[in-house]
Design brief:
Layout lengths: L1 H12 L12 E12 L18 E12 L4 E13 L9 E18 L6 E22 L2 E24 L5 E15 H4 L12 E16 L1
Antiparallel strand pairs: 1-2, 1-8, 2-3, 3-4, 4-5, 5-6, 6-7, 7-8
Length: 218
C-alpha cells in the first residue's frame, strides 16, 4: 500500500506533462457548473423566516489568461449565473427569490506545478457583479412581487486540478471550486413592499460554485 501511495505522489508531483505551461502562452477557456448560497438574502417576511436567494443554480463563464511566467497568468473573465432561491418543500404558498448574476472580473491564476502531468492552481479575481433579483412571496398572509438590479464590487478565490488532453495539443481540462462574494442592496428590492417584508440594506452575499472547465493554450 505504501508503494502504491508513493508511486501516486511521484506521478502527481514529479512526472512532466506532455505540454507544460510556458511563459508567453495565451490561454482561453470555458467552464460550466453548479452553485449554491452560503448565506440567505437577508430579506424576511415573518419574525423568523428569511428568503433564500440561491438554493441551487447553474453558472458558466469564459476566461482569458496571458502567462507572464510559467507559474502566473493574468487576464479577465466574464460569467453568468442563474439561481433559484425557492423553498424545496412548500404547499400552495410560495416563496422565491430568483437571482441572475453577471460577473466581469480581472483575474489571476497561480499554478503550483506547471511542468507536471496533473497541475494544481489557484484562481483569484475581482471586479463588478450585476445582480438582478426577482422576489415573489405569497405566504403567511404576505403578497409581494418585486424586481430590482444592483451592481457592486465582487471577488472570488478557489482551487483547481487540471490535466492535458492528448500530446502537445494545448488542450486541458479539469475541475475547479470557488468561493464567490458580492453585495446587494436589499432596500431596492423591498421598496413599496408590504410592511412585513424587511431587508438588511446593503448585504454581503456569498456562494460556492463547482465547475468542469476546458482550456486551450497557444
Amino acid at each position: 500500500m505504501k508503494q502504491i501511495l508513493y508511486s501516486f505522489v511521484v506521478l502527481f508531483v514529479c512526472v512532466p506533462s506532455f505540454a507544460q505551461l510556458m511563459q508567453g502562452q495565451h490561454m482561453v477557456g470555458g467552464r460550466l457548473g453548479l452553485g449554491f448560497q452560503l448565506v440567505n438574502s437577508g430579506i424576511s417576511y415573518t419574525d423568523s423566516d428569511r428568503v433564500d436567494w440561491g438554493t441551487l443554480g447553474a453558472e458558466y463563464g469564459l476566461s482569458y489568461y496571458y502567462l507572464v511566467t510559467e507559474h502566473i497568468g493574468l487576464g479577465a473573465e466574464v460569467s453568468y449565473g442563474d439561481f433559484e432561491g425557492g423553498d424545496f418543500f412548500v404547499s400552495s404558498d410560495k416563496v422565491d427569490d430568483r437571482t441572475k448574476l453577471v460577473n466581469t472580473m480581472l483575474s489571476m491564476r497561480l499554478t503550483a506545478n506547471p511542468s507536471n502531468l496533473f497541475r494544481l492552481y489557484i484562481p483569484l479575481g475581482a471586479g463588478l457583479t450585476t445582480a438582478q433579483q426577482k422576489l415573489h412571496i405569497r405566504r403567511s398572509g404576505v403578497d409581494c412581487d418585486h424586481t430590482a438590479t444592483d451592481t457592486s464590487f465582487g471577488w472570488f478565490f478557489g482551487a483547481g486540478l487540471e490535466f492535458d488532453i492528448g500530446r502537445d495539443s494545448g488542450w486541458s481540462m479539469g475541475l475547479e471550486g470557488r468561493c464567490n462574494t458580492f453585495h446587494y442592496n436589499t432596500d431596492k428590492l423591498i421598496r413599496d413592499a408590504p410592511d412585513a417584508v424587511k431587508g438588511d440594506g446593503n448585504r454581503r452575499l456569498s456562494y460556492m460554485s463547482f465547475h468542469l472547465r476546458i482550456d486551450k493554450r497557444f
